[in-house]
Amino acid sequence: MKARISVSDSMELKLRESVDSLQIAAQLESDGMTDAQANGRHGIPTVFDLARQMRRQVPAKPTAAPKPVGPWQTRPGRHVLRGVLFALPAACYLAVAEKVTGPAGGTVVIASLLLAWAVSQAVAYLGYVRLGQLDRDGAKAVLRRGLLGPGLLVVAVSAGLAVALRVTPAVALIAVAQAAYLLAASVALVLEAERALLLTLAPGVVGNVVAVVVGDGRLFDATAPG
Questions:
Q1: Which of 54, 78, 102, 183 has its CA 20 to 30 Å from the CA of residue 87?
Q2: Per residue in 15-43, pLDDT tens?
Q3: E strand or H helix at 102, and its extent?
Q4: Are 108 and 172 in contact (CB under 8 A)?
Q5: pTM
Q6: In 133-216, where does DSSP find H-type helix?
């Protein structure tokens, strides 16, 4: 029976983490061990024989790897809040529905909605790409440019369409406001600012709900044509 090889605590740890004797031999050679040294110090002909002896002496017992954190962890509270934020603007439509009358008014509001929706999703995608690259500052820059560049263009197109179709100022205001909101809300949601968006949206939603419940038809009278 071969004599037990004396190993340090640090070496024993390396032996337990090694998967086989070849890895042990590679570790020994990287530390400067040669066949001559293995024979002179331990009476073992080669480094590989020494590694096999060490493997028998110290069985492999690698440290359990930490459980990886799932990148798609669910956050129910955040999803519920986002759902609420998507639903709340519907209260505004209820309050102003009587102002959006006729084919022209409906066309302006729907066209503005679809255009702003498409642009906001494109800008959000670019922001998420940067976030996926762990570049939050770059994501903010992309979202800022998207809000100020294409966003202003969407607002201008909505206003221009309202003028071209000769809708009332109330309808034009609704179209422009919803376009601006969709773009700004998309930026806030990409940057996980749901709570700030909720606080910003709450006063207007509460006012519109009150208007719907009370039946106050004077909400947009100041912008109605004379």
A1: 102
A2: 888 888 888 888 888 888 898 888 888 88
A3: helix 102-132
A4: yes
A5: 0.57
A6: 136-148, 150-164, 169-190, 194-214
